[in-house]
Structures are given as C-alpha cells and as structure tokens.
C-alpha cells in the first residue's frame, strides 16, 4: 500500500468512519449498537480528541483516534486510544504508520498516558500495541457479554515522557 496517505479526519469522513467501526460490532468491541455520522462529528468537535485516517485509492481504509480517558481534571494527561481498519486491510504495516502519527497528535494535545482496551482473544491487536510500546496492565475478566458469551478485556498502557 504505497499510496496510502495519513491525514486528519474531517466531517466528510464521518460516514466512512462509522461504517468501519460498525463492521466490528460484537467482534472486537463491546459496543453493540451501531455508531452513526453524528457520533464521529461529535468527536471531531472535541478539542481534546484527535482522529486520523489512512486513505488510499479506495477511500478511507482505517482510522485511529484518541479521546479523553475521563472528564475529571486530574486525568487531563490520560487518553483512550483505538484504531480500526476496514476488514481485509489489516496486516499491511499502514496501521503502525497511522498509529505512530496518532501518538504524535496525542502528545501535541498534552496526553502523556494512553490506554487501549482490547479483547483478550485479539492476539493480533495485543502484538500490534506491544510493538508500539504499550505494556499490558492487566485483564478485566468477564467485563462484557456479546451474544451470550463472556468477554475478557486486557488493558494496555503507553506512558510518554
């Protein structure tokens, strides 16, 4: 994927971002209700959030985002990060390039601690985050249910000096 461009997301990307996320409902996220354009427009309006997209000839292939970990002031340096690519567009190396750009954007926003919540069965995402410098904090056992199945979630963190 040599022609993939990393850029900030804009309002015109909201539908594509929602479609990408919704492809993972009940598979890699505990969100069970689809997100819509309005959900992404709200993130784009948040001055403490950042959304970046990986765009190729076929349009938006994936995105990475950071948002505040908590509304409480003491957590101002902490953000929650995530990334999603369209099915069939993972494992190309572009996700790492996109996420590294997100780390720079998060740092510019004042974040010094990022978290990632990942299904414990998602070994690929755990390896991906480990390559980026995240470390495993622990496992939240039986924190969710999807289609009657119990889901464990691992919490990973990255501390940026």
UniProtKB/TrEMBL annotation:
Transferase listed as a keyword: yes
Source superkingdom: Bacteria
PROSITE patterns: GNAT
PANTHER family for this protein: N-ACETYLTRANSFERASE, UPF0039 PROTEIN C11D3.02C
Residue ranges of the TM segments: none
One Gene Ontology MF term: acyltransferase activity, transferring groups other than amino-acyl groups
Keyword Acyltransferase attributed: yes
UniProt source species: Neolewinella lacunae
Domain N-acetyltransferase intervals: 4-161
Name the record gives this protein: GNAT family N-acetyltransferase
């Amino acid at each position: 994927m040599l022609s993939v461009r990393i850029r900030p997301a804009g309002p015109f990307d909201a539908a594509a971002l929602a479609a990408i996320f919704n492809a993972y409902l009940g598979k890699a996220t505990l969100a069970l209700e689809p997100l819509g354009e309005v959900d992404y427009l709200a993130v784009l309006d948040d001055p403490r959030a950042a959304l970046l997209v990986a765009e190729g000839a076929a349009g938006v292939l994936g995105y990475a985002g950071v948002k505040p970990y908590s509304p409480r002031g003491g957590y101002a340096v902490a953000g929650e990060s995530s990334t999603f690519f369209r099915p069939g567009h993972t494992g190309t190396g572009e996700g790492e390039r996109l996420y590294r750009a997100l780390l720079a954007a998060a740092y510019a926003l004042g974040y010094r601690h990022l978290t990632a919540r990942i299904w414990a069965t998602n070994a690929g995402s755990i390896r991906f985050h480990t390559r980026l410098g995240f470390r495993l904090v622990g496992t939240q056992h039986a924190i969710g249910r999807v289609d009657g199945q119990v889901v464990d979630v691992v919490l990973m963190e990255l501390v940026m000096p």
